[in-house]
């Protein structure tokens, strides 16, 4: 049966954080120092993750699984988990292009070690890769990530393409006064390499809590900057996908923008999340979590877990209210929730 929230939105996409740890310290995500990591015993095992995913796929016809972190590739033996997930099958009766097939399995990564494992990820059954990259300038990249890893990231993108991932998507968070002068150059990088660039509006999930509307570069500004150099035409409505998309008039690819702040897509949201420590969330900005780990580890049946998930989705709100007086910032930062 499908999993439908109180506003008639059908859940299709499960975001799974496999770790809260990361080898970067991006300024909009984590503090430079002082993070307290989850103990290994607190993090869901691969078997527990596979069980929750199986219930979502088989009970509720979820057809999209995305692995996030932290940085998911720092979790040892990640390909073992991907292999387990690739053996799941969406019910043949599901209203989905994946009916009778494995769900779409995606990975969001900073790509710093991707050059070493891209082929293994592909062989294990990974469908798609999104790479986070916010600057093409080495010094600025280091400033934003607090790591000197740009060359490794660029090599990781190329190796992922060579391994057969197509298209590789690039996620770039744009922050005014930080990297908004790179919008066109990032777009050009996508045109030149065949990577689909998706710009993301800066969201209030930074660990330092310095976010403000004045730092948000809007979708309209981003599109105008690109179109002034490379004329664009908007593509059809995104549906439940988070990005609005434009094609270049000269035929050299596609670019997207995720306008989470200025034009939120909450009305079409089909996503739910589970954190590395097994807390089920119905929204990235949710202030409520549901403890799946406790059910898993206290003898709960599949039906018990399905009941908890169904109850949680029944509480999903209409939208996050960023920019409104009643917005409440989540207690956890992005790396603790899962991107």
Largest sheet: 12 strands, mixed
**How many angstroms does the end-to-end distance come to?**
27 Å
Q: Mean pLDDT, rounded to whole units? A: 91
Question: Topology as H/E string?
Answer: EHEHEHEHHEHEHEEEEEEHHH
How much strand content do the residues show?
15-25%
Strand order of the largest sheet: 7-8-9-6-5-4-3-2-1-10-11-12
What ranges have pLDDT less than 50 throughout 5 or more consecutive residues?
none
Number of helices: 10
Kindly provide the name of the CATH class.
Alpha Beta
> Shape from CA axes?
globular
Q: What oligomeric state best describes the polypeptide chains here?
A: single chain
Architecture, according to CATH?
Answer: Alpha-Beta Barrel
Q: Indicate the structural class.
A: alpha/beta
* Number of separate structural domains: 1
The strand count comes to: 12
- The CATH homologous superfamily name equals Aldolase class I
Helical amount: 25-40%
Report Rg.
19 Å
């Amino acid at each position: 049966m499908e999993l439908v929230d109180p506003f008639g939105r059908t859940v299709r996409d499960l975001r799974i954080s496999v770790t809260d740890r990361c080898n970067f310290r991006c300024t909009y995500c984590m503090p430079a120092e002082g993070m307290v990591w989850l103990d290994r015993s607190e993090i869901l095992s691969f078997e527990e993750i596979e069980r929750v995913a199986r219930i979502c796929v088989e009970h509720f016809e979820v057809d999209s699984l995305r692995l996030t972190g932290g940085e998911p590739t720092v979790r040892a033996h990640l390909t073992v988990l991907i292999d387990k997930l690739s053996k799941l099958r969406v019910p043949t009766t599901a209203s989905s292009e994946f009916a009778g097939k494995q769900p779409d399995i995606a990975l969001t990564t900073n790509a710093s070690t991707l050059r070493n494992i891209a082929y293994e990820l592909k062989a294990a059954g990974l469908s798609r890769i999104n790479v986070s990259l916010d600057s093409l300038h080495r010094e600025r990249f280091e400033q934003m990530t607090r790591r000197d890893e740009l060359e490794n990231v660029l090599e990781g993108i190329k190796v992922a393409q060579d391994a057969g991932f197509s298209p590789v998507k690039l996620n770039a968070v744009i922050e005014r006064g930080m990297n908004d002068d790179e919008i066109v150059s990032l777009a050009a990088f996508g045109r030149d390499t065949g990577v689909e660039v998706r710009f993301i509006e800066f969201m209030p999930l930074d660990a330092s809590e310095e976010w403000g509307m004045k730092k948000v570069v809007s979708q309209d500004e981003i599109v105008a900057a690109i179109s002034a150099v490379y004329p664009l035409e908007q593509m059809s409505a995104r549906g439940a996908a988070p990005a609005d998309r434009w094609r270049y008039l000269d035929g050299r690819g596609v670019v997207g923008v995720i306008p989470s702040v200025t034009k939120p897509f909450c009305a079409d949201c089909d996503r739910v999340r589970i954190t590395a420590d097994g807390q089920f969330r119905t929204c990235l900005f949710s202030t409520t979590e549901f403890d799946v780990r406790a059910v898993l580890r206290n003898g709960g049946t599949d039906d018990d877990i399905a009941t908890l998930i169904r109850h949680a989705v029944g509480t999903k709100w209409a939208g996050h209210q960023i920019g409104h007086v009643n917005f409440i910032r989540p207690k956890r930062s992005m790396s603790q929730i899962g991107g």
